[in-house]
Amino acid sequence: GENVEQHPSTLSVQEGDSAVIKCTYSDSASNYFPWYKQELGKRPQLIIDIRSNVGEKKDQRIAVTLNKTAKHFSLHITETQPEDSAVYFCAASISPDSGGGADGLTFGKGTHLIIQP
Amino acid sequence: DGGITQSPKYLFRKEGQNVTLSCEQNLNHDAMYWYRQDPGQGLRLIYYSQIVNDFQKGDIAEGYSVSREKKESFPLTVTSAQKNPTAFYLCASRTREEKLFFGSGTQLSVL
Asked: What residues form DSSP beta bridges with A111?
């Protein structure tokens, strides 16, 4: 089955700097890659996702890049703010349209992002 | 509240006791999931269901059971066979575009 590795487990950056979180996946058939943000004591929420037919997607201060050859994808947050402090999870799956199973996403173990004032 | 509701928020289990966590959604999603979250372990899949009256084991199903009698409801029972039940439990439903919507979670602890 799919295996998703996520690094680093903890990342501390100064407010206003950029943060990068990286994930690798094992199944070359995976074609859907979302990122979830979980604030302390709250539910995970989808912040951005990318499919394998594109290499990069951007939404305001966040962006995701995908390298299918190397089987890795990254989350980039620019101009970090205190409200960016949270745990971020990457995930991967094979879309049902592409023969994927119903069990859905395989998650990385998470990155605790700390924004230092 | 995002259309998916979990209850209770906190739950305590005595040794040898079965407890049931509730999950209800009004998003009209077919697929529903239960995940267990432990510190530093990410989200691990317990059970999932694609349609009413059908469900499948995930990666860590031992000691758990589910039912899916209605599209809106997917309760999880933590049985006495689960020897290490203390964790944060998250229910989710999935759109056709594969996006997951999570409930607010239940923190289960052992007395």
From this structure: A88
Whether the predicted pLDDT of B2 surpasses 60: no
Q: What is the pLDDT of residue A104?
A: 79
Residue numbers in chain A where pLDDT is lower than 50: none
DSSP string, B36-75: EE-TTS-EEEEEEEEETTEEEE-TT-TTEEE--SBTTB--
Say if A23 is an interface residue toward chain B (CB within 8 Å). Answer: no
Top-confidence residue, B11 or B40: B11
Q: Is A45 on the interface with B (CB under 8 A)?
A: yes
Q: CA-CA distance, A87 to A11, in Å (whole number)? A: 10
The two structure tokens encoding residue A15:
């407010």
**Cis ω for the linkage preceding B85 (within 30 of 0):** no
Indicate yes or no: CB of A110 within 8 angstroms of CB of B105.
no
A24 — contact with chain B (CB < 8 Å)?
Answer: no
Chain B CB contacts of A105 below 8 Å: 98, 100
Summarised one tens digit per residue, pLDDT across range A51-62 is 988 899 999 999
Mapping DSSP to helix (H, G, I), strand (E, B) and coil, where does residue B22 land? strand
